[in-house]
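Entry type: protein chain
Record version: 2
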Amino acid sequence: MTKPETRNARLAWYAGLVGLAAGTAFSLSPAGVAALAVLAGLVWWTVSDLRGTERRWVTAWLLAAVAARILVVAALSVAVDPRQQSFRTVFGGDASYMIERSIWIRNAFVGDPFAPRDLFEAFQTWYGWSGYTYALALLHVFFGPSPYATHVVSIVLFVAAVALLFRCVRSSFGRVAAFVGVALLTTMPSLFVWSVAPLKEAPIIILAAVAIRAMLSLLRPGRWWHAPVAALAIVIALVSIHLIRPESAQLTAAALAAGAVGWFALRTRRGAIVVVLVVLAATVGVVTSSRATAAMAGVVREAARRHIGSVGSAGHSFGLLDADAYGSGAGGEGRLDAGAMTRFFIRATVRFFSAPEPWILKPGAELALIPQQMIWYALVGLAVVGAIAGCRRDPLLTALLSGFVIVGAAGIGMNSGNIGTFIRHRDAVVPCVIWLAAMGSTYSLGVPTTRRVNPLDGGVAAIALVLIPAGFGLFLLFRMPALRIDAVEPTVVSAPGELVLRGEHLRPFLRAYVSSRGPHIQLADNLGAGVFPEAAYYARNGREAIVKLPALAPGAYDLGVYDGSDEVAYVRRGFAVVVPDAARRSLQGGATRDAIVDYVGWPGAQAQLAPGARDAGRPFDAPSRPSEIVRIITVEPFVGDATLDGVGPGDRLSLQQPLVRIRAVVRFPLLPSGQAEQRGKVVSLGSMVEFETAQSLLRGTITGFVDPPATMHP
């Protein structure tokens, strides 16, 4: 064969392989292939105006960023276990629920059968409703159920946002700043997650980018028709964001308005004077008008209510209000005065940029946040420099980006209280910080051509070798030692009463709550309705603290200790409240009888059966006439059958286990008939009885009575 024929044969072979791969991929996920085609078009559009080295660098970086995200999606499809779930996703429950709900909506639209419960979940509006779910449902209608393609759609939206603002920044701030911004946006860890997860973040980011680009055309139109088209695009973007997350639409509108006002002030000195005078006049009007003051106070109190709700949610929380706002009972935000609201606003704004501080993170998985947080600090510092430099290069774009940051700092900061949710919401404005930081980095470092070390490379090395290790150093130096409770004494108490906590690092200014409800104490429930009683907490020293109990009903209680809004220690079934002796005697009528009971339990259970210990009863069902341990006769180990939970629900396994047999003299109350009674039931020789303490449940058998029926203890 001649060389041209060989080359043509090779090309035909490669084309066949590509066609085979494309056909296989399309048969597996038509929507995924369509999304990949859109991604290819976005990359081409992004670099269409670039030339030479810049084109190669930007193309290679975008392709690498897209490939990394596609690999994550492919790994999800490979890692799924079909026996347990239909698909896997990034970010767990929220993302899975959005995909499932969009498929349910699609099934309802096309008439495919599915469970009635799923039909209710598909269209209920009280939890998880979003217009983006319906957009994903439309994708499933056209291409069939495509759970993994929804991840690729998020990638498409994120890359579109990057490409759109890349072109804006490049024309205003230069090619180096634009490339640095692309590099930072595509490598920021949390943004990487949101760009793959089928959540609300990716569509909100692209719609905000569209609004910024349209605002540039509205205030700086190139042709007569640009302004009306831009105004229409802004309206569509805001309405779309409102359908996805209404609060984000309000923040976006406020940010655009703030950017426009800032641009007007930056144009001329006269414009700056006019803006300052208008702001002063508006401030005076709000302060002097009772109606305006009440409206502003209502907005702040609503933000405080949302913050308190976030503080009580599961996860690691942080406080912004004064300590007394997190106490028991409803309406903590309603007690805020002007000073408290001002402090709340200042703390929220400052901690938008500082939280989560490295030293407040808990050892373990949360330490993975330190590298990103230190990078965030560097980005904020560079963004300040970029905003100053950008006012000279392009005041309008700088004002719009700064407007998103300023409005987001106040709005997102005041409505946050949970670290995970806070980072997720803050990342909606992080792209604006990154674009300003890219401008700041190029202004600070320059673009050297003769130096041996590129300052940009030096900056990256400084972050990796200095800034991130400094973050871990701050954690080690300033972190609060983990509080530990080793013992609660006494384990049986009457209430009102007093407990002594013994442990390590017991510090002052903590709050203690108790609960006999069974489930773990949720501070959000307590803040809303005061369902968990608060017990006064006083630290004696680092190893001992006093807890003063209020009046409590008899029962076994959990004890939770909180630092403001963050749970620092929790003791499950830490103590039992019993009826005082005088009240018990009146309830028992003075008639009791001693019996010998053989209890069986796990090794160590004998420590809970000290003389004088009383049966706490089952949760929510404390006995009014409890049995009482008189003395322990003997404790002996033995190997016997123990009933354990099996693999499936309701399964039980009987296995040989090391146990202890505890023979004790137990005093039971008597009924008027003269029969012994426990927990409202008659017991006699051979009866099975239970004895429950704060830490253990023992089951035993009555093997004999110490006294004849005629002899009873008063």
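Comment: Residues 484-577 form a domain with the Immunoglobulin-like fold (CATH 2.60.40.10).
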